[in-house]
């Protein structure tokens, strides 16, 4: 089975700090999953699960949406995740959930988002 690499797609890039609000001290570019304490599951969908997390250094709470790459072997599912990341990257509105980072490993794509 070939590995799908979401972040290496030419249309997907990590958010640069200057693309977020200047007063957003929570943004972490290029974070690692080891930077977080992963908590309980707070949601589950067709493709992913969402877990609570706390950033170890800052103590801020986040929601981490976790996709297993093995479940993204279908090109349509892979494209759905790519589009989600593209859209979340562009959104900056008080009534939408903010995405702070995307962490991709060999087995998972994790989207770090605001926890409400």
Task: Describe how the helices and strands are arranged.
Blueprint: E1 36-44, E2 48-55, E3 61-68, H1 75-90, E4 99-104, E5 108-114
Radius of gyration: 14 Å
Contiguous uncertain segments of 5+ residues: 9-29
Quote the average pLDDT.
80
**Global morphology:** globular
- What is the helical fraction, as a range of percent? 10-25%
The CATH homologous superfamily corresponds to Phosphorylase Kinase, domain 1
Number of domains: 1
The end-to-end distance, rounded to whole angstroms, is: 37 Å
Characterize the largest beta sheet: strand count, sense, and whether it forms a barrel.
5 strands, antiparallel
Helix and strand element order: EEEHEE
Structural commentary:
About 18% of the residues have low confidence. The chain has a single domain, classed as Phosphorylase Kinase, domain 1 (2-Layer Sandwich), CATH 3.30.200. The protein has one helix and five strands. It has 116 residues and is of the alpha+beta class. β2 and β3 form a beta hairpin. It is 14% helix and 33% strand. 21% of the residues are buried. It has a five-stranded antiparallel sheet, with helices on one face.
Keywords:
single chain; alpha+beta; Phosphorylase Kinase, domain 1; 5-stranded antiparallel β-sheet; globular
Quick recap of the structure?
This protein has one helix at 75-90, and strands at residues 36-44, 48-55, 61-68, 99-104, 108-114. The chain is an alpha+beta fold and 116 residues long.
């Amino acid at each position: 089975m070939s590995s799908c690499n979401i972040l290496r797609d030419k249309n997907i890039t990590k958010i640069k700090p200057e693309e977020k609000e200047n007063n957003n001290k929570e943004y972490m570019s290029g974070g690692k999953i080891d930077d977080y304490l992963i908590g309980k599951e707070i949601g589950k969908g067709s493709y992913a699960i969402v877990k609570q997390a706390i950033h170890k250094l800052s103590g801020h709470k986040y929601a981490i949406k976790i996709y297993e790459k093995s479940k993204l072997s279908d090109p349509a599912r892979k494209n759905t995740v790519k589009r989600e990341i593209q859209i979340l990257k562009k959104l900056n509105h008080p009534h939408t959930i903010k995405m702070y980072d995307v962490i991709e490993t060999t087995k998972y794509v994790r989207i770090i988002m605001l926890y409400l």
